[in-house]
Amino acid sequence: ASSSLKPSTTVSDTYSEAIELADIDWDNLGFGLQPTDYMYFMKCDQGGTFTKGELKRFGNIELNPSAGVLNYGQGLFEGLKAYRKEDGNILLFRPEENALRMKMGAERMCMPSPSVEQFVEAVKDTVLANKRWIPPQGKGSLYIRPLLMGSGAVLGLAPAPEYTFLIYVSPVGNYFKEGLAPINLIVESELHRATPGGTGGVKTIGNYAAVLKAQSAAKAKGYSDVLYLDCVHKRYLEEVSSCNIFVVKGNVISTPSIKGTILPGITRKSIIDVARSQGFEVEERLVSVDELVEADEVFCTGTAVVVSPVGSVTYHGKKVSYGDGIGAVSQQLYTVLTRLQMGLAEDNMNWTVEL
Ligand code: COI
Fold first, then answer.
1. pLDDT by residue (tens digit) across 86-142?
2. What pTM did the predictor assign?
3. 165, 75 in Cβ contact below 8 A?
4. What angle is formed at CA 258 by the lines to CA 253 and CA 259, rounded to 5 degrees?
5. How far is the CA of 156 from the centre of ligand 1 (A)?
6. 255 - beta bridge partners?
7. Mutate which of 240, 245, 303 to test ligand 1's pocket (most atoms within 8 Å of Cβ)?
8. pLDDT tens for each residue of 310-330
9. How far is the centre of ligand 1, averaged over its atoms, from the C-alpha of 242 (Å)?
10. Minimum CA distance residue for ligand 1 atom 8
11. What mean pLDDT do residues 241-264 have?
12. Rounded distance from Cα 160 to ligand 1 centre (Å)
């Protein structure tokens, strides 16, 4: 069921006034799909140019059974968030960064991608059309999920002849069921998320299917998620299924460097800058699994998880714990970043885009 809407400017004019909130339980948002009003839809033909993007009623989409994305995994996604400020205005966090990352990923996956301007405009239109689904300040955020997929039919292995760019949104709260409490990770040394020369460094959908087996096994044993090691030495930290990892020792914060097998997180990059602005020394380098034993604190970063403190990491049956509550450094970085994202602190980084 999809009915197109008027051009985007009309949509935002219409929706910016009547700010009623959707009738849902805003106090108990987790990270699950809450269907909203509109999604954004834009196609591109063999010429490689995306045109005629439009908002449609949120709903199922139709795909040829032979679509490239369904058969050969030719797909990418992005994730970003919109926050409602105290004055009711809306803040997006670094949307151009997602646009650029999608372009980079599209190149790796042999797909055309929307321009940065098209991407950012589409995000803005989608958020404004779904304004009543942005949580009140302090209750969560609107998670924005852009998708790029080979929607054209292929049978022999080849890039699809047609592509679809789509954005849907959902109000969300905390990602992990632990809420803001520290999560417990288990190091996985047999199954790997990414390989050198592979696609670990781009946000292709297959990277996320590949971690489900280890993640499910970890959850069945009571862990929150899995921490991956590099597949060559089985020794250096890579990332968690859905987020990047940081290790704190004294005034030094270390995180695995981006070298093709690690997703270049936008929260990762932002936290590096925030940490330096707070006087920490940040090192991007190979981080050995042995350093987990000596660390004062460990935390994860991601759009969905924000900054998640790690309470313990288990490796080869040995559990290393990092104290009872949230570590001081994790707390400090979380607070500085989220105050900026929510418009509670001045954005001296120039990262937010106000709608
Ligand atoms: C995000 O943090 O936005 C992601 O894309 C991770 C996803 C597994 C929820």
1. 888 999 999 999 999 999 999 999 999 999 999 999 999 999 999 999 999 999 999
2. 0.93
3. no
4. 140
5. 31
6. 284
7. 303
8. 999 999 999 999 988 899 999
9. 5
10. 242
11. 97
12. 25
